Amino acid sequence: MGETHNTATAATPTISGDLMSSHFQFSDHNSLPEPDVQILTSSGLRIPAHTGILASVSPVLENIIDRLHKHHSSEKIIPILGVPCDAVSLFIQFLYSSRCSEEELEKYGIHLLALSHVYLVPQLKHICSKAVGQRLTVENVVDVLQLARLCDSPDLYVKCMKMLYDNFKAVEKTEGWKFMQENDPFLELEILKFIDEAESRKKRTRRQREEQRLFMELSEAMECLEHICTEGCTTVGPCDLGPSNKRRGPCNKFSTCEGLQLLIKHFALCKNRVNGKCSRCKRMGQLLRLHSSICDQTDSCRVPLCRQLKLKMQRERKGDETLWNLLVKKVASARVMSSLSLPKRKREEPRETIHDHGIRNFRK
Ligand SMILES: [Zn+2]
Ligand SMILES: [Zn+2]
Ligand SMILES: [Zn+2]
């Protein structure tokens, strides 16, 4: 409430000149009848207004006005207390004009949000929620969150929670947070719960993405293994094909294929393959076993050991069988996904990631 309003001479000041000129320039002000009600603010300022207009915009004010009529009060006064008197002026101004400037929202958005909620003015509430949400800061987010909860403004509430989650360390140090901790332990609990859930949601998604990437990599490795053993690729080919028949150019999965070719060459020559001391050979063995589990053309398949491994696995059904079966299923479905349902551009994306991470598994 500015000094200017208190300079009015009457004991109960009415709206003063500058307020009238800056806030109350309603386009049809002159065509309106005499004001028939006064809004009383905390500072004692009285804002003249029209019951017809107030009642038509706010059902709560309509009720209050009805009651005033019933009691035949000679002097119709509606007190709107507890907020700065400029905010009340702006509120009344909005009821007339349905307009509010950015500057006004910047200064009184929070108060207008509260007023629009209390007096049920949804258009203003919508504008204020948005404006306050755009001006969230680490300093005010806790206060705004409390307001959003009080005013039942879900969009703003979620926005505050996200801001809290993203800046928790900084928010924890603010006065607003400390005050809330002391005075509203339930809200603190609510916030911590939200953060906890968001955190585990993030972890879950990350894990799923990593898993999916692994399955895609394995699925691609399976494709490469088959095509290396069937038609050959750059440096490795089936033993029964002469060099002239070997495919020369790199295939379209070359980053994976190359790693696999190196691994196959190593596997063929490694002295530690049989004694189980070589981790690269072990990995090759797993890839062959995985192929054999997925392969549905064992009889004609040219991948080494495909048939033998299948028979071996059928003979020994071991404890980790369910896990293995799950892996086989996931790799098989990743393969279907990559070859059928994904559009071409998407299908090529995972290759980047394989280049970054997966291929190292084959080369180590
Ligand atoms: Zn290839
Ligand atoms: Zn080896
Ligand atoms: Zn096979």
From TrEMBL:
Residues 342-364 are annotated as: Disordered. GO terms for cellular component: cytoplasm; nucleus. One of its GO terms (molecular function) is zinc ion binding. Keywords: Cytoplasm, Metal-binding, Nucleus, Ubl conjugation pathway, Zinc, Zinc-finger. Residues 35-104 form the BTB domain. The keyword Cytoplasm applies. GO terms for biological process: embryo sac development; pollen development; regulation of DNA-templated transcription; response to auxin; response to hydrogen peroxide; response to salicylic acid. Residues 346-364 have a biased composition (Basic and acidic residues). Pathway: Protein modification; protein ubiquitination. This is BTB/POZ and TAZ domain-containing protein 1. It comes from Populus euphratica (Euphrates poplar). The gene is LOC105136700.
